[in-house]
Design brief:
The complex is a heterodimer. Chain A has helices at 18-30, 40-49, 56-66, 80-93, 104-107, 111-115, 135-144, 159-167, 186-191, 193-208, 228-244, 260-281, 302-319, 340-354, 363-386, 391-401, 440-456, 462-470, 480-484; strands at 70-75, 97-100, 149-152, 172-174, 214-218, 249-255, 286-292, 323-325, 419-422, 428-432. By secondary structure, chain A is of the alpha/beta class. In chain A, the strands form two sheets. In chain A, strands 1-2-3-4-5-6-7-8 form an eight-stranded parallel barrel, surrounded by seven helices. Chain A has a two-stranded antiparallel sheet with strand order 9-10. Classes of the chains: A alpha/beta, B alpha/beta.
């Protein structure tokens, strides 16, 4: 196996051999519920019999011509009946792509807590206890949804869940990979490398039988703002890891930083770089871009929340994203009066207004793209080199180094982690690049941005600006007289 | 005595009710039936006052004030100097010129909502609520009776409202209220107070608002084409010359007043060149009268690049044209959020409001005029109005420091609008032989300035707009608007692409779809698969 050197050089890759995969699969499913004794051909048949309207890849591809992102909404109910009802409700309200979220408890391998989530008629856990559902029940989710169904797998071991979901007609798998659980203990993420290789191999097995599966990844971070190069590096590494095992249709979803030009640039760069690196490895992939509306803390006032949601929808539309991931009412905070219906109606109306429009090509956009691209290449090349040609090793090394972890600034007082900060215009830069392998030029640029920001504000100390940025969106409603005359 | 005249029809047949109105007022005779079976011709042009773009002398101003304005109704108005005194007693943050200047210096967009209520207590409560929501300037919308100079009816409506304890008409009856009561509004809030009213003759109302301490005025003659069916352009120009001379007089006496020149017109698919030219012409007429604090205005259409381009052209041309006419000007740019049809659904209304706030931020507007969640229903509640302010403020805050950068696409759109506006302004100057007032009136009558869907009988109504595939507003037919050939061809091409994708619909069907696009079309894609394929 060669190391990935120059951009023109391709490298040999290693897919789990068919026999090994089948053996592991038999072992995995054999130890599971008896209901899982379906054969793979039958699962492929179920997928092939789905109508076009339920096929994720088909729908996402149609966005190319429609020029409006597909509206992706999530269902998090742990009770099965409530889960089904929410799917119907979201679809009738305008959601075009629905994701079933897995219960938090499953993420830490605690199925007992997950299955107890809906016990006694109330939901004590957030997310579906889908592993506790029977295969037949999981199949009902697909039957209920008039849209394509996606399952989110940010767990340590997503093998069974991926098997069940794909066998019952889910056409998209979101999350997972060791980099998808960076917010969990490092050891758990490291141990999960092989499990995720299996999931990607499973997706590859469907693809090999001409079943299109949309493998989707999101940026994962504890911090509400993430420097674009870190997000892109996570997503490109994940996409390579998946593509190596045969995944072909890759949806890479970047999270909003609430900066229009930078967010548009990030969406464009992630698509370009993922394609370029896949080509370097010789992978046959189709890359789609997604945009997640603000993933940080939301204010409680409905009008304030609405502005954040609409800005996200507008950015998604103007960036040419294939998919926009809208938050649920649960995600925007318990105090919000906005319902899921409100959120979907609002974001969809924004998407319709902006449809067919795109952010114009400008030198400012190109400059931002080149900055993001330069930083991303530094990170990616360094991480890939650390894997010495092996993508799983590169991933493991990335997890262990914690280079792609961005904790909430202020909570982890360690110089080990990179710390993000907004510049004068609100774009996200590095306050501290920690041990990230950036060139001196990139480090100097970020330092300049910080200096300008600190100069322009009335901060008592530099780090105050960093802390302020973590609560972005919460204190913006002051009038001129409050600011100027008080 | 009113100098207001009634307009003769431009070139179309009259509807029966129009004909009856003109006949009642002795402007037509039934035997002159040139305009079809139901109509008649205008007898003469007696209603057309002579206008000239020159500054009124104080003598002329005071003569008109005493003979024509103060005699319109019994009020507690005193001389102009008393009004100026009220202004001098205001705190700095109650002066609109200070707010506009501070906003610009701090890089913060001024937010101004609208609200008009008949009862003063409710009006004050609403303004206080808007102030709390983050508004920088608090407006008062005038009631329709006062706007139509039906002061007796306004007084009656006020009396009835007070009797039942709720507003029986929408808007504040300023003439019936008078100066002293209106001062209570100014005293109840800590922000500058502004007037928003469209009227063929707002002279008396403006006198009262100014005397009460309002420091932000609104409206110009061309904009009134969207509201006034019968008024002639000449009469509108003359009345607004008075308004502007009054504002300038306050300034000369040490009480600066800001004047905004809206150009939302009918609020329905008004192509940017008409809106920009309209605001500029109204502002040019005002600068001649001595107005120093100018807010030009562009009503947003929803397409990011087109809206930002129009804002850039308006700002550039305002600085270029207005500074040739007056010294020491402060020129600002205001953008009202979408003025057309609104969705009934609150979340969708938020989307429309925020699209306006977003485009305003990207175009670096100095001021945003906000909408409420209740636009589809009528007069907004104070809560829904406050929500419009707050959500706008939040969007502006999120985008602080950001702008739409230069790009070839933006440049192309700027060229399109600038060339068309310059062609209109050149035609105005040519028609008026150098006099903008004469030229403006002639341009309206001649269809050079043609406001789509205007009810005004002097408006040619020959031009027809339509959206292109990207949602930008283009000319389906520019009528007699002097659109340069290059722009005409571009629009023809862009509109043609859309028409080709919908052969089953007539162009006018598509225009109708566009008119109701924001109220009915936000839950479905605007374009069809064929339209997508055409891209």
């Amino acid at each position: 196996m060669k190391r990935p050197g120059s951009r023109d050089e391709t490298v040999e890759t290693r897919q789990i051999p068919e026999d090994d995969f089948v053996a592991e699969r038999t072992k995995l499913l054999g130890s599971s519920l008896s209901e899982c004794e379906f054969n793979f051909n039958q699962s492929v048949e179920i997928q092939n019999e789905l109508p076009q309207s339920k096929k994720s890849v088909y729908l996402v591809q149609s966005r190319e011509s429609v020029q409006r992102p597909l509206l992706l909404a999530s269902v998090m109910d742990s009770d099965f009946q409530a889960h089904l009802s929410s799917i119907s409700a979201l679809a009738s309200q305008g959601a075009e792509f629905i994701c079933s979220q897995v219960a938090n408890a499953h993420r830490t391998h605690d199925p007992d807590i997950a299955s107890g989530g809906s016990r006694d008629g109330f939901e004590s856990v957030k997310g579906s206890n889908v592993l506790s559902f029977s295969v037949a029940e999981i199949g009902q989710i697909v039957a209920q949804a008039p849209t394509p169904s996606q399952v989110r797998l940010d767990v340590g071991d997503g093998r069974k869940l991926a098997e069940f979901a794909l066998a019952t007609g889910f056409t998209s798998v979101l999350g997972g990979s060791p980099l998808g659980i960076l917010d969990l203990p490092v050891s758990l993420a490291v141990d999960s490398v092989h499990n995720w290789q299996y999931v990607e191999r499973l997706v590859g097995a469907y693809e090999a039988r001409n079943v299109d599966v949309l493998r989707a990844f999101k940026t994962v971070s504890e911090s509400p703002i993430v420097p674009p190069s870190v997000a892109i590096s996570q997503l490109v590494l994940n996409s390579l890891f998946a593509a190596e095992q045969g995944a072909r249709h890759l949806l890479l979803i970047v999270a909003s930083n609430l900066h229009l030009c930078q967010d548009v640039a990030t969406v464009r760069v992630v698509k370009r770089l993922a394609g370029e690196y896949a080509e370097r490895y010789g992978f046959n992939t189709e890359i789609y871009s997604g945009f997640q509306i603000w993933n940080g803390p939301y204010p409680s006032n409905e009008s304030d929340v609405s502005a954040i949601l609409v800005l996200g929808a507008i950015t998604a539309a103007l960036s040419g994203s294939h998919v926009v991931d809208v938050p649920t009412n649960g995600q925007i905070g318990p105090l919000s009066t906005l319902t899921s219906r409100d959120i979907i109606h609002m974001t969809k109306a924004s998407l319709v207004i902006e449809s067919m429009q795109k952010y114009p090509d400008s030198s400012a956009l190109h400059l931002e793209e080149s900055l993001i691209e330069a930083e991303s290449r530094c990170l990616l090349d360094s991480l890939l080199n650390a894997g010495e040609g092996s993508l799983p090793s590169a991933l493991e090394s990335a997890v262990k180094s914690e280079n792609l972890s961005i904790p909430v600034p202020g909570l982890v007082p360690s110089s080990k982690y990179a710390v993000p900060i907004r510049d004068n215009t609100g774009a996200v830069r590095f306050f501290n690049t920690a041990s990230l392998p950036f060139s001196q030029e990139i480090k100097d640029f970020n330092k300049e941005c910080v200096a300008k920001r600190v100069e322009s504000g009335s901060w008592n100390y530099e780090y105050e600006a960093v802390l302020w940025d973590t609560s972005a969106g919460q204190f913006l409603t002051k009038s001129i007289s409050e600011l100027a005359f008080n | 005595m009113l100098t207001m005249g009634v307009c003769e029809p431009a070139s179309r047949a009259l509807w029966p009710h129009e004909f009856q109105y003109l006949q009642r007022h002795n402007f037509v005779s039934s035997d002159e039936s040139k305009f079809g079976s139901n109509g008649g011709t205008v007898k003469n042009d007696q209603s057309r006052p002579t206008v000239k773009n020159e500054q009124w002398s104080i003598d002329r101003f005071l003569r008109v004030r005493n003979d024509e304005v103060l005699t319109q109704a019994d009020t507690d108005l005193k001389d102009v100097e008393s009004g100026v005194e009220a202004h001098l007693k205001l705190k700095p943050h109650q002066h609109a010129d200070v707010t506009m200047r501070v906003g610009r210096e701090m890089g913060i967009t001024v937010v101004q909502p609208r609200h008009g209520d008949t009862l003063i207590a409710i009006q004050i409560a609403a303004m206080q609520s808007l102030e709390e929501a983050g508004a920088d300037i608090l407006s008062t919308v005038t009631d329709p009776y006062t706007r139509q100079l039906e002061f007796a009816n306004a007084a009656k409506a006020l009396e009835e409202s007070e009797r039942v304890g709720r507003s029986m008409v929408s808007g504040y009856p300023v003439v019936a209220m008078g100066v002293e009561r209106t001062k209570e509004i100014v005293a109840s809030v800590s922000k500058p107070c502004s007037v928003r009213m469209a009227s063929k003759d707002s002279r008396l109302a403006k006198e009262i608002y100014l005397a009460a301490g309002y420091t932000y005025m609104f409206m110009g003659p061309v904009q009134n084409l969207a509201y006034e069916k019968w008024a002639t352009p000449e009469a509108l120009i003359q009345n607004y010359q008075y308004d502007d001379r009054l504002i300038a007089y306050y300034g000369e006496l040490g009480a600066p007043v800001v004047k905004e020149f809206p150009a939302t017109l009918t609020g329905t698919l008004v192509p940017p060149c008409i809106a920009v030219a309209s605001s500029l012409l109204d502002a040019m007429l005002a600068v001649t009268q001595g107005v120093k604090h100018i807010v030009v205005n562009y009503g947003m259409l929803g397409n990011l690049v087109q809206d930002v381009a129009a804002m850039r052209v308006l700002r550039t041309l305002a600085n270029e044209k207005l500074t040739q006419l007056g010294d020491d000007l402060e020129i600002y740019l205001a953008v009202p959020q979408w003025m057309g049809d609104f969705p009934h659904d609150d979340p969708q209304a938020y989307a429309v409001i925020l699209n306006g706030a977003f485009n305003a931020a990207m175009g670096e507007a100095d001021e945003v005029i906000t909408k409420s969640l209740d636009e589809a229903f009528g007069v907004p509640s104070k809560q829904s109005n406050a929500a419009g302010v707050r959500t706008t403020r939040q969007m502006l805050g999120l985008l602080k420091g950001q702008r739409l950068e230069d790009s070839p696409e933006l440049e192309e759109e700027i060229d399109d609008i600038r060339l068309s506006v310059n062609a209109i302004l050149d035609a105005v100057v040519r028609l008026g032989e150098g006099d903008v007032a004469v030229g403006t009136a002639a341009a309206i009558r001649g269809g050079i300035i043609d406001v789509p869907f205007s009810p005004n009988l002097c408006n040619a109504s020959r031009a027809m707009p339509i959206r292109d595939l990207n949602g930008a507003v283009r000319w389906l037919d520019p009528g007699d608007v002097p659109v340069p050939d290059s722009v005409r061809l571009r629009h023809k091409h862009l509109v043609g692409r859309r028409l080709k994708t919908r052969p089953e619909k007539s162009p006018l069907n598509l225009v109708t779809e566009d008119i109701t696009g924001f109220s009915k079309g936000l839950s479905v894609d605007r374009s069809t698969p064929r339209e997508h394929a055409a891209r």
